[in-house]
Each structure stands twice: as structure tokens, then as C-alpha cells.
Amino acid sequence: MGGEEEARAEPARNTGTDEPFVQIKGVTKKFGDVTAVDNVDLDIQRGELFCLLGGSGCGKTTLLRMLAGFEFPQAGTISIDGIDMSEVPAYERPTNMMFQSYALFPHMSVEKNIAFGLQQDRIPRSEIADRVHDILKLVELQDYKKRKPQQLSGGQRQRVALARALVKEPKLLLLDEPLAALDKKLRKQTQFELANIQEQVGVTFIVVTHDQEEAMTLSTRMAVMNAGRFEQIGTSTEIYEFPQSRFVADFIGSANIFEGRVVEDSADHVRVETDLCEIYINHGQSVAKGSQIWVALRPEKIYLSKNAPEKPGPNQATGMVDDIGYLGDTSIYKIRMDNGLILDVTAPNQIRPMSRTHAITWEDKVYLSWEPASAMLLNS
């Protein structure tokens, strides 16, 4: 899309060098007649925290297992740090994997769980002690080293599993749904802890998750997968604000999506005629006049008011409140438009209401509007 470059600023985080550390080229994996991964290409930079995001059965875990060496592709190549991994078994790869279940040994203490892999590699005792001490300090579990896993909270067990994976100093750490076992509040807290630890150690992380919020919080970049292919690869901002397809717009966050026809195409704006209203978008895209196209509008980008606009124009619509969902920090409004369409609108609850006299409520007539930059044109 034209005119988007300035809008795509992303918070700084280590994104590594320009030379790809992991290179996936034309990789395909089938199980019988089912294609789990379908001819995908991907470059991941050294030091990135990269997320593979998608729903169940999209191929993300199969791709992770091929990186680990637990599965092998039928076509294509996977290289890590410039070395082709096609013939390299899992135990000889510069990788380690952290599983969703954590797989901690219940009869061993925290420090013995962490030391186990180093002992199997016959590392000298003094070096094992030093490395275990350092990693316990990193994950802030020095005071819990003598405890057994069942004596720890879910978040603490997650950090033990992470420490056990990192203590072997892999070049690449693969994490399969690492936070899925945690409750929502702890998961949010641990997302930032995990990102901070990755920043400190500088190891390249590849995380598989189905949780869009988790992927957006953790990742330097992510790939959205669907039916074995990448729908879009980019930063959180790029994928949320500039989705390239209806699937991505609907999968990441929520979106009101409707079909329209391009009635004006200029270098700096596009006008689209839809069943909702005429939509004016002030960033250009190469779209021929008369083309049928899809438009997406995020619920939080829409202004909701009981007062009519001062003058009519594009990006305005009228409807009635059909339903309301109160979520504490925000409210979700289901707006039935004059033509029967249902739109989702979200609004922050910035003031604790002492009186509902002036609040928008069920069956109110409301006016919707949005900024020219808010609507998104979708290529497919």
C-alpha cells in the first residue's frame, strides 16, 4: 500500500543482523494426502523473537518440528546459521525445544532439572554449577533451586523449563505454545518476562502460538499461517494496521469487513462505495476504478455518538444499538445499521459512570464516523 511507510514505526527491539540466521526455502510437508506445510519460504534474523501464529491445523507446529529435526520435509531446505539441516539429526542441531507441557522431572529439584541436560553432555561439574547459578539468577529463581516442580506456581515452572532450555546455550530456541498452561493474568505478565529474557541472552527464539495477543506482545516479527501457507509476514503494527487479506484482518483482532466498488482512485486517496456508506481512505493503493474490493474497519477506530454530525459526508453512518457487552475497561456495541448490517464498535470506559442518563444504551439511535486513515483496503 502506498503512503504507509511512516505509519509503520515499531518499538525498538533486537532484530539481529541483515544476514538471515534461519532460512526456509520451498519447504513442503505432507502426511498422507494432507499437506501440512505447503511450499513456504521464510528468513529469520539472528537475535529475533519470531512468532508462528495461526489456528489449529494451520501447520505451525509441523514447521517448528521440522526446524527441530523431529520431522523432515518432502521438499525444500532448512538452513540454520548457514548450514543445511536436511541430513542433520535432531540431537546434532544447534537448537533446543521448550514444550508446552514443560516436561519437568517431578522427582528432581529445580537446579537438578536445569543441570540434567548438561550432565548428559558430560560437562565438567564446576562449569555446570556456574551455568546453573547464572541461569537461575537470570530467571530470578535463586531462592527456589531446592524446590520440586510441584512446589512451584505455573509461572515458576515455566521459567524452570525456559532455564533448562537456555542453559545448554543453543543458537536457536524453539518454543511450542510456551504460555498456554498459564492463566490469563499470569500469561500477560510472563509475556513481557519472556521477551526481556530473550533480549538479555540474545538467543534467536521461534515461538509457536495460537494466541494473537501473545504473538503481538512477544514478537519482533510474526508469520500468520493458514492451511500450510503464510498469509502475511511482518511486525505487529504492519499486520494489525495493514492486513493484506480478509483472513489476516479477521484473524488478528476483530474487524468489520464489507464489500465495495472503487469509484475514485487517486495517488493520495481512494473512494469506495459500499452498502454501509461511501468510504474515503486517504492512503493510496493501486486499485482500478470500478474494481470490486473488500474494506475492513476496526471496531476501536469508529466514533460513536448520539449527536448527528454537523454536515453530511463520507465515513458516516447511522444505526441503532442492538446489544452491549460491558468488559470493564471497554464496552462492545452491536450496532444495527439502517440497511440491516451489524457493526461492532468498541469504546473505552474512561470515566466510572455515576449516572447512566447520558450514556449510550440499548435501542438508542447513534451516529458512526471514522478518520480517513482508519479503513483498510484488502487485496483478497
Descriptive account of the structure:
There is one protein chain. Helix 2 crosses helix 3 and helix 3 crosses helix 4 (154-166). The chain starts with 19 loop residues before the first strand and ends with a strand. It has helices at residues 60-68, 110-120, 125-138, 154-166, 184-201, 212-218, 236-241, 246-251; strands at 20-31, 34-45, 49-53, 75-80, 83-84, 95-98, 172-176, 204-209, 221-226, 229-234, 256-265, 270-274, 278-281, 292-297, 303-305, 316-326, 330-337, 342-348, 365-369, 376-378. 34% of the residues are buried. The chain folds into two domains: 5-94 and 170-247, Rossmann fold (3-Layer(aba) Sandwich), CATH 3.40.50.300; 254-378, Nucleic acid-binding proteins (OB fold (Dihydrolipoamide Acetyltransferase, E2P)). The radius of gyration is 25 Å and the shape is globular. A six-stranded mixed beta sheet has the order 6-7-8-3-9-10, with helices on both faces. Strands 13-12-11-14-20 form a five-stranded antiparallel beta sheet. Residues 1-17 have low confidence and may be disordered. Helix 5 (184-201) links the parallel strand 7 (172-176) and strand 8. It contains eight helices and 20 strands. It is α+β, with helices and mostly antiparallel strands and 380 residues long.
